[in-house]
UniProtKB/TrEMBL annotation:
Keywords noted in UniProt: Hydrolase, Signal
A Pfam match: NAGLU
Domain named Alpha-N-acetylglucosaminidase tim-barrel: residues: 165-339
An example molecular function term from Gene Ontology annotations: hydrolase activity
UniProt KW Hydrolase keyword: yes
InterPro entries on file: Hex-like_dom2, NAGLU, NAGLU_N, NAGLU_tim-barrel
Keyword Signal tagged: yes
Protein's name according to its UniProt entry: Alpha-N-acetylglucosaminidase
Signal sequence interval, chain numbering: 1-20
Length: 339
């Protein structure tokens, strides 16, 4: 996990250089070299092919339990793709009635899973979308032994860009607030089938922040007035308001932390790179008293509830203040320890 944090740090730095990097004829740009460095680093941190294969087989088993023997899945990290990553679909030669009929190879488990989705969509007329937009519709998939063949040399699909990013920071409030592991497992399967390999993983951060802020002498009452409730996490995390819908119980904090400990390994097993939160500078009001010399600004009223000012006007620690670095480093260390 330490390496994962470093990878994401490199990603943010290298993709946002301090000065433009023009593309020169006949030469790679500095940005291209940076992406290649990140990809090499990412590859070195990825789960072994055997682990990824087991994860891809799990996606197949949960999606089409009757067809687990109908597909031959292979994770091929090297030599399969011309560019970033890819999958290849073909018919199995001399397939038997109870044996594999279709072979799907991919550079990661995500590519294998998205190759499975591609085959089901374009050869079997199946539809696999998000729950609220149709969900899983696989009634058109023929019975084992009768799957449509992929003629000729098969089909190979190259990914045009390295990463397929998913979510934004408010979905944790709009959609995910009450999900359990069963629902998250279904979502991660959906991500893999859609080719997502760079998803946000924001669960459990309040439990981490509680431990961090305790080390900065922030008490439970002050944290209760700082954290928003489960359905308002996004607004509290972004510093739009504080305390509304809270306080968060220790049971809820523990539940979210334990959930994250299931989410992260599954994403990594599938060859994904989870994107974890970092420190934005949003701090409890008590920080002004604990650190009177720190550069902390009280923000304006983004919104208040029933005209009550106690929910508005959060506090932001200036990123140039040494305390910002100290708090941010403590949060990352605590995430590594916690996950």
């Amino acid at each position: 996990m330490r390496a994962l944090f470093l990878l994401l740090l490199h990603l943010s730095i290298l993709l946002h250089p301090s000065s433009p990097s023009p593309v020169l004829a006949g030469k790679k740009s500095r940005g291209t070299d940076a992406v290649e460095q990140i990809l090499r680093r990412e590859e070195s941190l990825r789960a072994p092919p055997s682990v990824q294969l087991a994860a891809a087989q799990g996606v197949l088993r949960r999606l089409l339990p009757r067809h687990t023997s109908s597909f031959l899945l292979k994770v091929v990290p090297k030599g399969l793709c011309e560019s970033f990553s890819c999958f290849r679909i073909g018919s199995v030669v001399n397939s038997s009635l109870n044996g594999p009929e279709i072979m799907i190879e991919g550079s990661t488990a995500v590519e294998v899973s998205s190759g499975l989705h591609w085959y089901l969509k374009y050869w079997c007329g199946a539809h696999i979308s998000w729950d609220k937009t149709g969900g899983v519709q696989v009634d058109t998939v023929p019975s084992p032994g009768s799957l449509p063949r992929v003629e000729g040399q098969g089909v190979k699909v190259e990914r045009p860009v390295p990463w397929n990013y998913y979510q934004n920071v408010v979905t944790s409030s709009y959609s995910f607030a009450w999900w359990d592991w069963k629902r998250w497992e279904k979502e991660i399967d959906w991500m893999a089938l859609q080719g997502v390999n760079l998803p946000l993983a924001f669960n459990g951060q309040e439990a981490i922040w509680k431990k961090v802020f305790k080390d900065f002498d922030v008490g439970n009452e002050d944290l209760g007035n700082f954290f928003g409730g489960p359905a308002f996490l996004a607004w509290a995390r972004m510093g739009n308001l504080h305390g509304w819908g809270g306080p968060l119980s220790q049971n809820w904090l523990d539940q979210q932390l334990n959930l994250q400990k299931l989410i992260l390994p599954r994403m990594i097993e599938l060859g994904m790179t989870p994107v974890l939160p970092a420190f934005s500078g949003n701090v409890p009001a008590i920080f002004r008293k604990i650190f009177p010399t720190a550069n902390i600004t009280r923000l304006s009223n983004w919104n208040t509830v029933n005209g009550d000012p106690r929910w508005c006007c959060t506090y932001l620690l200036d990123p140039s203040d040494p305390l910002f670095i100290e708090a941010g480093r403590a949060f990352i260390k605590q995430q590594i320890k916690g996950f």
